[in-house]
Design brief:
Elements (H helix, E strand, L loop, with lengths): L17 H7 L6 E4 L6 E2 L14 H11 L3 E2 L1 H7 L7 E5 L18 H12 L8 H4 L1 H22 L5 H16 L1 E5 L8
Parallel strand pairs: 1-4
Antiparallel strand pairs: 2-3, 4-5
Amino acid sequence: MKAQLGLPVDLDHEPLKIDALLQAWNPCGAIWYAHACCSAGADRPSSFQDVVAGSSSLGRMLAAIAQTGPCTAPLPRALLGGDRPLAAFVGHVEPTFDWTLRDPVTGQVMTQSMIVDTFYQALHSAPRTPIAMAMDGYYDAVAGLLLEHGDAVDAYEQHEAGAETRAMQAKLMAMDRLSMVVLGDPTVCVAD
């Protein structure tokens, strides 16, 4: 599992061959963004461990990933460790879920403010914004999600229908955002 942790897969579910990528492409100075489970690595214990039942398929997957121990995934390690390295790799050190990219009530995709604003507008603004500062907008939502979690917990204690689900969703979404990290040079900017 550790050798394939976080690797992108193709349509046939075959993991990316890192050596072939590095022979065909020079990552020198680029910023790679991978919104994928464990794309940046793993941690032990998983911050999601106490949120899901250990006997569920997700619980078993989290336990298996945690067994790899705290580590950097092979793709960012290879891209950042070469002779002409990638400048920065942005990815998750935990599993991530596509449903965290949608509003839990409406189902509307929220990638505009989360990802597009962060990776397009902030990185391409004048003057150029370093990647770590561009990520600030992405993390801003964590405070609101934790407030939503607290409100839902209060509602749960008042026996309000659906409050437990709202509390769990808000907490998972906050945790998902907090698991995204920048590896490499946090001060790298997009060139003019």
